[in-house]
Amino acid sequence: MIARILGEGQWDVPEQHIEELNRLDAQVEAAVESGDKSGFSLSLAALLDAVRKAGSPLPADSLHDSDLILPPSDATIEEVRDLLSDDGLIPG
Amino acid sequence: MSLMQRIRLIFNAKANKALDRAEDPNETLDYSYQKMLEMQQKVRRGVADVATSRKRLELQIKQMQQASDKLTSQAQQALAQGREDLAREALTRKSGLAGQLTDLSAQHAQLQAEEEKLTLANQRLQAKVEAFRTKKETLKATYNAAQAQTRVNEAFSGISEEMGDVGMAVQRAEDKTAQMQARAGAIDELISSGALDDASSIGSGDDIARELNAMSSQSDVEAELAALKSGGTGSAPEALEAADPTPAAELEAEPAKQPQEGQS
C-alpha cells in the first residue's frame, strides 16, 4: 500500500501494518473532531512515525498515486479540517 | 472510512480536476506536462520569495543585535561614570529589544524550515518531471497502438497528486511569507521612525548617548584645563600658569571628577 505524507513524499507500507495505521489514524480523527490540540499533535506524530518506520520510501521519480494521504507533520487541526473540505487547502 | 482515505479521495478528486480537461489522452499528457512545468516555476519563485524574506529578517536581527550591544556598552559607560540611573535605563531598553529578538529568531527558524521544505519539494518535482517526460512519449505510443487509456490515467493520477502536494506546499509557504513580510514591514517602519534607531544610532540622536557624551566632554574640558593650569602638555599659553599658579596646584591634588559630580 502506498502512503503519501504531504510535503515529504511517498512510502510503500506492507499490508500487515495497515491495521496499526488505522488505529493511529482513528486517534488523529478523534482529536480533530474534539478539537484536542495536544492530542492531535501527539497522535499525528505517532501516525507519521509509524508510516516512516513501517514503510520504505518510494524513489522521487516514481509516478504512482497513493492509497492513503496523510497531513504534513506540522499541520494544525484547522489545516486538517481544511484538507477535508472542498474549498480547503488543496489548490485546483 | 479512515481520515487518510478521506484526505486521499478529496485530494485526488481535486488534483485530477485541475488536469482532467482534454478529451484525447495525448492532449491530456501534453497538458499535464505543461502544468508540471508551470508548477516548477511556481516552486522556484516560492523558494526565492522565502529566501528574500529570510534575508530581510536576518538584516533586522543584525540591526537589533547591534542596538542591543550598543545599549550594553552604554550601560557600562554610564556605570563607570557613576550614573546608575542611566545604566538602568539602557538595560531596560535592552531587555525590550531582547523580547523582539527572540521573536524574530523564532520566525527566522520557521522561514528556514519552509525554505528547506520547498527546496525538497522542488527536487521531488524535478525528478517526477523527468520521469513523466520519458513516460509520456512511451504512453503516447502505447495509446496510439493499444489504446492503453488505463496506463495513461495511472501515470496521470500519480503526477496530479504530486502537483497537489507541491501546490499545497507552495501555498503554505506563501501564507507564512506574507505574514512575515507584514511583520518585517512593521519593524522596518519602527526602525525608520527612529524608535529603535534612537537607541542604536552612534553618538547623537540617542538621549543616553547624549548625556554620556555631555558628561565625558565636560570631564575632558576639566582635565585639559587642569593640564593647562599645571603647565603640562599642549599649546598652553605660558601666561595662564604665570598669572595664577595656586588654583592649578589645587586641581592637581583633587581628582578631575569632582566638578562633574556636582553637575549630576
Write up this protein:
The complex is a heterodimer of chains A (92) and B (264). With 92 residues, chain A is α+β, with helices and mostly antiparallel strands. Chain A has one domain. Helices cover 46% and strands 14% of the residues of chain A. Chain A has helices spanning 18-34, 37-54, 77-83; strands at residues 2-5, 9-12, 56-57, 68-70. Chain A has a 4-stranded mixed β-sheet, covered by helices on one side. In chain A, a hairpin with a 3-residue loop joins strand 1 (2-5) and strand 2 (9-12). In chain A, helix 1 packs antiparallel against helix 2. The radius of gyration of chain A is 13 Å and the shape is globular. Chain A starts with a strand and ends in a 9-residue tail after the last helix. The model of chain A has no long low-confidence stretch (mean pLDDT 90). Chain B has 264 residues and is mainly α. Chain B folds into 2 domains: 3-201; 213-263, no CATH class. Helices cover 87% and strands 0% of the residues of chain B. The longest helix of chain B is centred in the middle third of the chain and has 63 residues, at 84-146. At the A-B interface, helix 1 and strand 4 of A face helix 1, helix 3 and helix 4 of B.
Order of strands, widest sheet of chain A: 3-2-1-4
The percent of residues in helical segments of chain A reads: 40-55%
Largest interface: A-B, 37 and 40 residues
Helicity level of chain B: over 70%
Q: What is the domain total for the residues of chain A?
A: 1
Which descriptor suits the 3D outline of chain A? globular
Count of individual domains of chain B: 2
**Whole-angstrom Rg of chain B:** 35 Å
Which residue ranges of chain B are poorly predicted, with pLDDT under 50 across at least 5 consecutive positions?
198-204, 236-245, 248-264
Q: How confident is the prediction overall: mean pLDDT of chain B?
A: 77
User: What proportion strand of chain B?
Assistant: under 5%
How many β strands of chain B by DSSP? 0
- Give the SSE string of chain B: HHHHHHHHH
